[in-house]
């Protein structure tokens, strides 16, 4: 890597951090809209919550497609920019949606697709610019970006809703999504001769050979179970708090607490995973057990963010362990 490329690596780190803040800050802070949408459309809590859940699901489902597009298009910068544009259109359309059913399409599918298209191409840029500090760089870009998004977006959305109504807040949210263009502009392609060899995975991003390993299949089923249970807390937390023990104007700060806890869990995962005497699989299973019991005892409890952060961070390491 040239000296110029090495210096730009920290700009790349900032761009990926910012993109994760916007993408997951939006996806995981839908709970700040949840209560006001219930009052606006008088639909069931489940149907209203499905709007936010579908956005997150669509975002994640786009992963394999985005990976394939990286290889086909050959430019992460273009994909992040297009993703930002699609998300912008989704937010604008949502602001003018007359009912929840249309929001399932505009916010759940269109906005989720935009963020899903932008997420993976941005993250993969870290692998091109960092080698020796790859682990630390990924930690800062993905962990802190997601956690920081949770910390700031909940209170921001709630304040915007109070000041401009939820439709006005959604229009401002559309402008925030356009900041992915800034992230895309900063994702300067590195010279091919300097590209890390292990970034060559993009040549065959949809290789599913590891799915022949029954341990990996069981691990995927486990992830489906805990995500289905714990992500509901992000959507329902504000409404749950407002109905129980916290004022409406302060409920979104619980999402901020979850964000801080998420960051703690991520860093805790890094410390434990690097310990030579640590069995990642056993720690992962223990965290899953505690998380499940916590959600059952007290739905939406803030401490679940710590365990959720740990589980999210450990996923790639556990897959490598199981596939070995």
Polypeptide structure, described:
The protein is 79% helix and 0% strand. With 324 residues, it is mainly α. The chain is globular and about 50 Å long. The two termini are 31 Å apart.
Short key terms for the protein model shown above:
324 residues, 0% strand, 79% helix, globular, mainly alpha
Number of helices: 11
Q: Could you list the spans in which at least 5 consecutive residues all have pLDDT below 50?
A: 192-201, 300-311, 317-323
- In angstroms, what separates the terminal alpha carbons? 31 Å
Largest sheet: number of strands, sense, barrel closure: none
Blueprint (SSEs and pairs):
Blueprint: H1 3-27, H2 31-41, H3 45-73, H4 76-95, H5 100-129, H6 134-177, H7 180-186, H8 214-244, H9 253-274, H10 280-297, H11 304-323
Helix pairs in contact: 1-5, 1-6, 1-7, 2-3, 2-6, 2-8, 3-5, 4-5, 4-6, 4-7, 5-6, 6-9, 8-10, 8-11, 9-11, 10-11
In short:
With 324 residues, the chain is mainly alpha-helical. It contains 11 helices and no strands. The longest helix is centred in the middle third of the chain and has 44 residues, at 134-177.
């Amino acid at each position: 890597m040239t000296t110029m490329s090495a210096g730009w690596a920290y700009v790349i780190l900032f761009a990926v951090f910012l993109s994760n803040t916007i993408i997951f800050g939006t996806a995981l802070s839908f709970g700040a809209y949840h209560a006001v949408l219930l009052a606006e459309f008088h639909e069931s809590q489940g149907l209203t919550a499905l709007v936010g859940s579908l956005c997150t699901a669509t975002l994640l489902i786009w992963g394999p497609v985005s990976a394939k597009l990286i290889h086909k298009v050959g430019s992460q910068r273009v994909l992040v920019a297009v993703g930002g544009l699609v998300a912008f259109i989704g937010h604008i359309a949502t602001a003018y949606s007359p009912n929840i059913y249309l929001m399932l399409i505009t916010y759940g599918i269109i906005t989720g697709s935009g963020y899903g298209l932008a997420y993976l191409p941005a993250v993969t840029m870290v692998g091109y610019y960092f080698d020796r500090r790859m682990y630390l760089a990924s930690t800062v870009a993905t962990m802190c970006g997601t956690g920081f998004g949770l910390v700031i977006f909940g209170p921001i959305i709630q304040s915007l809703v109070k000041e401009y109504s939820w439709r006005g807040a959604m229009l401002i949210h559309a402008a925030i999504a356009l900041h992915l263009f800034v992230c895309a502009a900063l994702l300067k392609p590195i010279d091919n001769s300097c590209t890390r060899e292990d970034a060559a995975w993009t040549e065959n991003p949809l290789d599913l050979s590891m799915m022949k390993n029954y341990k990996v299949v069981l691990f995927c089923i486990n992830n489906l179970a805990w995500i289905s249970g714990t992500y509901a807390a992000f959507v329902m937390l504000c409404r749950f708090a407002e109905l129980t023990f916290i004022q409406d104007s302060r409920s979104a700060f619980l999402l901020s607490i979850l964000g801080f806890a998420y960051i703690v869990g991520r860093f805790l995962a890094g410390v434990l995973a690097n310990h030579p005497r640590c069995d990642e699989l056993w720690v992962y299973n223990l965290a899953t057990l505690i998380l499940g019991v916590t959600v059952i005892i007290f739905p939406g409890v803030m401490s679940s963010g710590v365990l959720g952060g740990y589980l999210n961070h450990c996923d790639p390491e556990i897959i490598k362990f199981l596939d070995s």
